[in-house]
Amino acid sequence: MKRETKVGLTIVFLVSLLVFGYLWVKEYRIRVRKHEYYISFPEVGWVKKGDLVTILGVPKGRVEKVVLYPDSVVVKVSLDEIYLTEGSHAYIESQGLIGQMRISIILGKGDTLKEGSLIRGVKRKDLGELISSVGDLVDSLLTVVDRVNSLSITVENFTNSLNNNLVVFRRELTDFKDFLKDLLA
């Protein structure tokens, strides 16, 4: 075989390997039927094209497009070999501490939805929002503790005052008893 033929075959092989590797990395699948749906969210945080879409925790697709509207955000998702059903809903969740997001879908119990249907989505609190909420909760608890301490001091002062009045009342009662004895004697 001539040297030019060997070089040509090597280049064809390497280009084919490069194309195959690219398709493999991009998770391109031959004969996999994709179904597109739209999910409306009030806000999506850091969701972007290419983010993972799971159904009941199983990876089943990717985010294809994120479109902003005045009162909502609509996310176009492409799902592998699965149809959504009526009553399905989605939520956004964080995949980790670095801000990677994913859309999780929970299937409804109704009939199969047509491709291109719109489903409702909600955004769950992520770790940062939960930590912020814990801070607010701690502040509220500190306020409650301060009020309980104040109430405890008030009750203690009332109890001391009542005890002092009881001592005075007993002394007055003893004096009255002595007065009645003297009066009857």
Question: Can you walk through the features of this model?
Answer:
By secondary structure, the chain is an alpha/beta fold. It folds into 3 domains: 1-29; 31-124; 126-185. It has helices spanning 3-25, 127-184; strands at residues 34-41, 52-55, 58-68, 73-80, 89-94, 101-106, 118-123. The protein has a 7-stranded mixed beta barrel with strand order 1-4-3-2-6-5-7. Strand 5 and strand 6 (101-106) form a beta hairpin. The longest helix has 58 residues, at 127-184.
Write the layout of secondary structure elements.
Blueprint: H1 3-25, E1 34-41, E2 52-55, E3 58-68, E4 73-80, E5 89-94, E6 101-106, E7 118-123, H2 127-184
Parallel strand pairs: 1-7, 2-6, 5-7
Antiparallel strand pairs: 1-4, 2-3, 3-4, 5-6
Strand portion:
25-35%
Order of helices and strands: HEEEEEEEH
Quickly count the helices: 2
Per the principal axes of the C-alpha atoms, what is the gross shape?
rod-shaped
The gyration radius over C-alpha positions equals 37 Å
How far apart the termini lie comes to 147 Å
Low-confidence stretches: none
Total beta strands = 7
Task: Enumerate the strands of the largest sheet in spatial order, edge to edge or round the barrel.
Answer: 1-4-3-2-6-5-7
Query: What average pLDDT do the residues reach?
Result: 86
Number of domains: 3
**Biggest sheet statistics:** 7 strands, mixed, barrel
Structural class: alpha/beta
What share of the residues lie within helices? 40-55%
